[in-house]
Amino acid sequence: MQTDQQAAIADQYGVLIDGTERDVSGETIDVFDPATGDRLTTVAAATADDVNEAVDVAQEGFETWRGYTPAKRCRILNDVARAIRDEKERFARIETLENGKPISEARGQIARCARHFEYYGGLADKVEGESIPLDDDHVDYTIREPLGVTGHIVPWNVPAYLFARSVAPALAAGNAAVVKPAEETPIGALELTKLLHENGVPEAAVNVVPGEGDPAGATLSGHPDIGSVTFTGSTATGRAVGKAAIDNLTEPHLELGGKSPLVVYEDGDLDVAVAETIKGIFATNTGQVCSASSRVVVHEDVSDAYVDKLVAAVEELSIGPGVDDHDVGPLASATHMEKVAEYFDIGREELGEPVTGGRVLDRDGYYVEPTVFADVPQDARICQEEVFGPVLTVSTFADEAEAIRRANDVDYGLVAGVVTTDLGKAHRFARDVDAGQIYVNEWFAGGNETPFGGFKDSGVGRENGTQAIHNYTQIKNVCLDISD
């Protein structure tokens, strides 16, 4: 029996193909509440045959959807955005129950989800080509055309927003979509897709195939009849997805891991530095964010003061169920909690005791303490490897050159931030650091409108902004001889 908190979630879900939710009759996945460890619901696990059928159906949906005028697609996607806002509380509760994040944070992510459909609804009738001047004897122009069926493999950490981040621009450009949500958090994708159908998106144009990475994700990423694959997740899995796509000459868009530095200069405001550190690694989805500020590199003259302020702030954070809106919620799954706990042990072996935290909490659910290791050398594993949890390393630097060197000396290059009052230092940091997005005096700056993606092992391509429309279109050139 469902509690009032679970009222937004059905007792069971099926694979959603052509608007029909199939009965759960084969393999299933149990979805758990990270705050308690209790089962929330049961979801069908898509087979390879299910994925193949979803792609076939989506091809039919593509023909219908691309036949709508751009202005009609614009109106429909804006209707979707309004409907999401109308049901913000329901979708926020779903996200908190299946992912664990604080409800206030979930509300913010649902607002971003709605904004994505609104933003790309506004671009749907502005997907334009170019006129190219050749000579007086020719007219030459380009047309941007949709790819057809696009594949979307969505992670568990920000499921509603990341569903929208790729599905919305794909639809705006005239494509159909097949979505494989993470097995830990499939409910939001299923419920959002039903809402899309209710607000004018053809049922065949968006299909959802929840299931395990193999077979569901592997079949989708390697399917020969899709025009692109968008994947957000670990670098190791992203490499496999990219290889499977390229084997079919399918374009992959990969937003992968991060080990992002926050550099604090001696002239920076330490209160700002501490607040942005807390936001970047602890108070946003319990550190389960690819763009988390998981490394702080602080000038040696202010490092002691920074660590003292940071530890005091960390120890004031409340830890508990997301529905009660604590500062820090649970980790998303028991398996992930075990992984984070292993890094507690790795940190102790390399460095000794953390200056705060470092324990799995003895309670129901998947809770760990926000944890800080100080005086961390650059080659330590916890400084180099993505933990994807509330584990922070603090290192020091002596001068600007060393700060840049430490910021760059990892395999990843997703985002980086700097705290300074010196605009020259800020601009040199932005110029010299190898990352796809640079934050100055504010972590998680930017928004739906700003391109997002990484350098090095952090991925290929960019999401968000007008750039995303290019991900889901192909260019056709037309040249006419108009000579006498």
Widest sheet: strand order?
10-9-8-11-12-21
Total number of strands? 22
Radius of gyration: 23 Å
Summarize the biggest pleated sheet.
6 strands, mixed
Q: What is the architecture of the largest domain at the second tier of CATH?
A: 3-Layer(aba) Sandwich
Helix content: 25-40%
Overall geometry comes to: globular
Number of domains: 2
From the N-terminal CA to the C-terminal CA, the straight-line distance is 79 Å
Low-confidence stretches: 1-5
CATH homologous superfamily placement of the largest domain: Aldehyde Dehydrogenase, Chain A, domain 1
Number of helical segments with 4 or more residues = 15
SS content category = alpha/beta
Range of strand content: 15-25%
Mean pLDDT comes to 96
Keywords: Oxidoreductase
Active site: 255
Domain Aldehyde dehydrogenase: 26-478
Pfam families: Aldedh
